[in-house]
Design goal:
The protein is mainly β. It has one domain (20-291): Single-stranded right-handed beta-helix, Pectin lyase-like (Pectate Lyase C-like, 3 Solenoid), CATH 2.160.20. Helices cover 9% and strands 37% of the residues. The chain is built from three helices and 38 strands. Strand 1 (23-26), helix 2 (37-43) and strand 2 (49-52) form a beta-alpha-beta unit. The chain is globular.
Length: 338
């Protein structure tokens, strides 16, 4: 993954004329070019690489890092588990509002304990950076977007874990307005919004959400997993929306003056209901009352499917009175007893 990102970054830099790129190192307690990330970003030129050693990084300003429109590859040397961007409960993690493009890459960090008005972990406005392999956890927004706030941009969010964030208003995990982000292969779990959109709140935007798990999120009002409002026309494909809760409607998804397109997606265990409001059915969706275990064929739970499990099934032979699985396609509903 990192080699592919490096190759892409270098090719783009060459095409843009940045042929004399530098690699800057950052270490909070060792020998390096800088001891904090912001100083490295300030010194870097477009096309430079900033390599951050393990440590916990903070600042005394309003955010730990302001990318300042720089086209740089900012990444950790040893992965997100040991490279922490810490807001200390009083500041934002990362700010991108100076026209950053997809050539501004942030990769392999944990962003935590950040707090501000909008976008506790990451604030993106009029910009389209690339965020890869990051854990965004334990952040708070007084307004919207405990984990991320995205407005008027088309950022790319890939392979990220967005978990345990809180918004006092909307979008515990993410708040998206007038933006078209691409969110791929992300886990959006256990986030909370005091109003709408525990996992995501989408307003007048068109995000593309693919191969994501949206699970265990809570909204005190509407849209435990996702809330789409005012032409928040998301495209949600090949994803799982599971075990989310809304205090009013749309445990999985609530839609108001919006038509999200949904395909190849499983809804299960959402309370009080899976979807409320208008939506476009792209086919291949599945609706279950409960979320099944990882290996439902393993009846005795010993990790092996064997003759004991077969005998248990034979012993229960007959009419099934359990939950039903609802497979949704473009024609309608087909019900399968389970």
């Amino acid at each position: 993954m990192k080699m592919n990102n490096l190759i892409t970054f270098l090719v783009l830099c060459v095409l843009s004329g940045a042929v004399n790129a530098n690699t800057w190192t950052v270490d909070d307690d060792g020998v390096a070019d800088f001891d904090n990330i912001q100083t490295a970003v300030d010194a870097a030129l477009d096309g430079d690489e900033i390599l951050v050693m393990p440590g916990t990084y903070t600042s005394i300003g309003g955010e730990v890092i302001n990318m300042n429109g720089k086209t740089v590859w900012l990444h950790s040397s040893n992965g997100q588990a040991v490279t922490i961007i810490d807001g200390e409960g009083v500041r934002r993690g990362i700010r991108c509002d100076s026209g950053e493009s997809n050539m501004t890459i942030v990769e392999d960090f944990t962003i935590t304990a950040c707090m501000t008005g909008d976008g506790g972990g990451i604030y993106i406005r009029n910009s389209s950076p690339t965020i890869i392999n990051c854990t965004i956890t334990g952040n708070t927004a007084i307004g919207g977007g405990g984990g991320l706030f995205i407005r008027d941009g088309s950022p790319t969010i890939t392979n990220c874990l967005i978990t345990g964030n809180t918004a006092n208003v909307d979008g515990g995990g993410l708040f998206i307005r007038d933006g078209s982000p691409t969110i791929t292969n992300c886990m959006i779990t256990d986030n909370t919004a005091n109003a709408d959109g525990g996992g995501l709140s989408i307003r007048t935007g068109a995000p593309a959400i693919n191969q994501c798990t949206i699970k265990g999120n809570v909204a005190n009002l509407n849209g435990g997993g996702i809330f789409c409002r005012d032409k928040g026309n998301a495209t949600i494909m090949n994803s799982m929306i599971e075990d989310n809760f809304a205090g009013k409607i749309g445990g999985g998804l609530a839609s108001d003056i919006s038509i999200p397109a949904i395909g190849g997606t499983r809804f299960c265990g959402n309370v009080p209901n899976h979807i409320v409001g208008t939506w476009s059915n792209a086919g291949g969706n599945e609706f279950l009352d409960l979320c099944s275990a990882g290996c439902p064929e393993d009846i005795d739970g010993n990790g092996v499917v064997d003759v004991v499990d077969l005998l248990a099934i034979i012993g229960a032979w007959g009419e099934c009175v359990g939950q039903k699985v609802h497979i949704v396609n473009q024609i309608g509903f087909t019900f399968f007893p389970r």
